[in-house]
Design brief:
This protein is of the alpha/beta class and 276 residues long. 37% of the residues lie in helices and 24% in strands. A nine-stranded mixed sheet has the order 2-1-3-4-9-8-7-5-6, with helices on both faces.
């Protein structure tokens, strides 16, 4: 087979699942593979087990996707894997600071998004009062409508949320100094006296993150919703009718399928067309 690109596009996936069974890695692999097929692109993908084996990629990749994962994004302070992870992040920052070199793009997902928010110190990373799990509307802010990775999304759009932690109280002044922007927030909850969590941030021109799971698809979400522990968590928080509605809506092309088909492909497009 001949490809439109002579040299492979190199993508690194940083696996933060710590060996925990998940659908996220499959989702990422599937989207990248499908994007290559649809665009006749030769894409090489390497995976790095950050937490179990202290693996991180070097600076030779065109784009990086850092996954979700279990556990606290706060309690890992000073753990060896986190030191190595942040050292990798600094190395990409330093690379992008060299104006004559091709820039490197990073997408941070869920746990990685929380770690990046801590690293850049652009908001409060804290534990939620209760677990958020399910398919929920995500509301775009003004800058979200201008965000290339969000191109083609509607307001609100729907995404899979699965977290015990959150980022709140964003530091807009510091973000502006970095060239960053808050792109979206969670739904309004007037019945509870809590801050609305940040759901997506552009940290700078080349780094973007989502609190939700843009790689999630009906296959993976259906699997999660049928796990008894997850099912009962949704029913406890939102009622059985909401659980049934989530299952029914998984195949809705305007909900998580739409998000799945836009955000990561848009990110990959930025990597393919990256600027020097």
């Amino acid at each position: 087979m001949s490809f439109v690109n002579e040299h492979p596009i190199k993508i690194a996936i940083l696996d933060l699942y710590d060996g925990y069974p998940n659908q996220g890695m499959r989702g990422l692999r599937d989207i990248i593979r499908q994007y290559g097929v649809e665009n006749n692109l030769y894409i090489e993908v390497d995976e790095f087990d950050v937490r179990q084996h202290l693996q991180v990629p070097d600076t030779s990749y065109d784009g990086y996707i850092s996954s979700g994962g279990p556990g606290s994004p706060i309690d890992s302070v000073n753990e060896e894997w986190e030191k190595i992870y942040f050292s990798w992040l600094r190395s990409i920052e330093n690379w992008n600071g060299s104006t004559e070199l091709k820039k490197k793009h990073i997408l941070f997902i869920c746990h990685s998004f929380q770690l990046a928010s801590r690293y850049f110190d652009i908001g409060l990373v804290c534990k939620r009062k209760s677990t958020s799990f399910g398919v929920f509307p995500i509301h775009m802010l003004h800058d979200g409508f201008e965000e290339e990775v969000f191109d083609g999304l509607k307001d609100p759009f729907y995404a899979v949320d699965n977290r015990d932690f959150q980022v709140i109280k964003p530091n807009y002044e510091k973000l502006a100094q970095m060239g960053g922007k808050v792109l979206s927030i969670e739904k309004e909850r007037p019945h509870v006296p809590y801050d609305r969590a940040v759901m997506a941030i552009r940290f700078n021109k080349y780094f973007v993150g989502t609190q939700f799971h843009p790689e999630a698809d009906p296959i993976g979400m259906s699997h999660h919703l049928q796990i008894e522990e997850k099912k009962q968590a949704v029913i406890h928080e939102h009622g059985e009718a909401k659980w049934a509605s989530m299952v029914e809506n998984l195949q809705d092309p305007d909900k998580i399928v739409w998000t799945h088909n836009h955000i990561l492909p848009n990110f990959l497009l930025r990597v393919v067309n990256q600027e020097s």
